[in-house]
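Notes, p. 3: input format for complexes.
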Amino acid sequence: MSTSSSPTPVLRADGLAAGYGGADVVHGIDLELTPGDAPVGIVGPSGAGKSTIVRALVGQVRPSAGRVTWSGRTVSRIGLRDKKVFRAQVRRVAQEGIAGVDPRTSVDRVIGKALSDARKAGRASGRSVEELLTDVALEPRFAPRQVGTLSGGEKQRVALAAALATRPGALLLDEPLTAVDPAMRGEVVRRLGAAATEAGTAVLLVSHDLELVERLCPTVHVLAEGTFVASGSLSAVLAEASHPSVRELAEAAPRAVQRFR
Ligand SMILES: Nc1ncnc2c1ncn2[C@@H]1O[C@H](COP(=O)(O)OP(=O)(O)OP(=O)(O)O)[C@@H](O)[C@H]1O
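Output follows (261 residues plus adenosine-5'-triphosphate):
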């Protein structure tokens, strides 16, 4: 099997269709996440199917057509034995962050557990808890804090630090910084991007925050009604406005990303 330093995609969707209760919400999705490549963004209206793509990529939603492969292996067929390695190599961080963790658990423990899981899966990042906190713009003084005492934005950053602990081949971020204030978001994303580049981690970012997407992702896909309707740099895609959903995005884009006008 190839490793995360291989130039071949760690995660790949080919003609992916997926949905719920027998009805597809996304279809014809082709996507490659290759360690060493620049981060890729997905933007698009609410309900277009962005989170469904992410869930299908991590095997939470089964494809009804097409395939999702992890280093060449079909994700929906990964056996129990390899699930641990898959979960360490392909990390999803969603808006809810560390919602399932006991609020009395310390930050140190949450990240320490991720490091220990990574070691068991042969994926130790070689970074300390303090270094991982720095990667998400949190100071080392947060290490002993109970997660229940953290703000929403701090919790989201701890979830990101725990995901980085496994030095994943692919990091799938689904609205990961909604609770972080806009002024701080840029700094978190700058450090996160640097940490991912250093670790050779391929990043997929799903977000309604176009400024954030533009900052991190040289390539974006616009998803509308379950299919990619435009791809390229955010400014080129918005300038071309080739689809009604892209025109709507362009009109609603914040001033900072309106350089395409
Ligand atoms: N568990 C589920 N069961 C049934 N339908 C679902 C489920 N999860 C999502 N859907 C539906 O699938 C469609 C796509 O949802 P999804 O969450 O993927 O969209 P999204 O683009 O991520 O939206 P948003 O930007 O609002 O988060 C929506 O119509 C949603 O109602």
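The beta strands are 11-20, 23-33, 40-43, 65-70, 73-74, 90-94, 170-174, 202-206, 219-224, 227-232.
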